[in-house]
Write a sequence for this structure.
DNA sequence: AGATAGATGAGAATCTTTTTCATTACGAGT
DNA sequence: ACTCGTAATGAAAAAGATTCTCATCTATCT
């Protein structure tokens, strides 16, 4: 359960941490900003300081529990890391985000890194486009 | 020449714009933040306000003269768009940035977007890793 | 239960970027 | 080249996101 995941991360099992993790697991939105988390918790009657939300999300990221993404727009969004790696495709009109995984791309990335003497640690791929509802005529 | 590029963007040819474009063309660093541009200009004795730097870079981006990247770390970096599209590979230890272009990846991205009903407009791919000088034993 | 190291909350501080507004400069037309 | 209207600039304030400070509180270990 959650508590164990927090403990495994070397963190004390505190109410803010449990609530934030729960929220990430149950939220309908996969990608939430720190501000989102803060407000969603407020809506549920949980008074957790914004500074704590930032701290906890950063700790969860360090522990590999959540991933932080720098989409366009200046602020970071977080999502629960459910083990399955994936990339994102974002509609530039409505902001809808879909996830995908493509083995060919994954493989080529590894090769490209190697060809340049790099040892790949991670990557970030975001495709921007217009979704079926917002394609141009 | 530069002036024509600025004019083509529908912008007046002003001293700040010319100086910023020149700097982007001649800088040894390919990826510079707005703050970098501001300071580099100061070093050259050009007193151009930071607000103007932001405004001009945003205008250049809209005109397709420069590309804006959201690497990790909260602030955006800009680079002159020389027509040739490319992606980036960044060393997580020293911050070194190399550019690359891989036709296979480009092609697959287009296909992935299509398979999901998207019309690809742009994309951002950043590989993070350790360069040859910082690989683990 | 008590001690202690770690966690929290509130607000201040910091950093990046945008906005406001008064002043200045480009460039079209003469 | 000169004038004028519009767009551009600079400085400072504002806004937005994130981090830090520090006094207080609380898991966890004994």
């Amino acid at each position: 359960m959650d508590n164990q995941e927090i403990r495994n991360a070397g963190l004390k099992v505190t109410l803010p941490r449990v609530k934030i993790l729960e929220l990430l697991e149950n939220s309908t939105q996969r990608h939430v900003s720190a501000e989102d988390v803060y407000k969603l918790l407020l809506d549920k009657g949980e008074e957790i300081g914004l500074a704590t939300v930032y701290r906890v999300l950063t700790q969860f990221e360090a522990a590999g529990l959540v991933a932080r993404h720098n989409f366009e727009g200046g602020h970071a969004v977080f999502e629960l890391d459910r083990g399955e790696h994936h990339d994102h495709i974002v509609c530039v009109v409505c902001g809808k985000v879909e996830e995908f995984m493509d083995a060919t791309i994954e493989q080529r990335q590894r090769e490209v890194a190697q060809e340049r003497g790099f040892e790949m640690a991670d990557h970030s791929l975001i495709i921007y486009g217009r979704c079926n509802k917002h394609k141009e005529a």
About this structure: Chain A has a mean pLDDT of 93. The first helix of chain A runs from residue 2 to 8. The two ends of chain A are 49 Å apart (CA to CA).
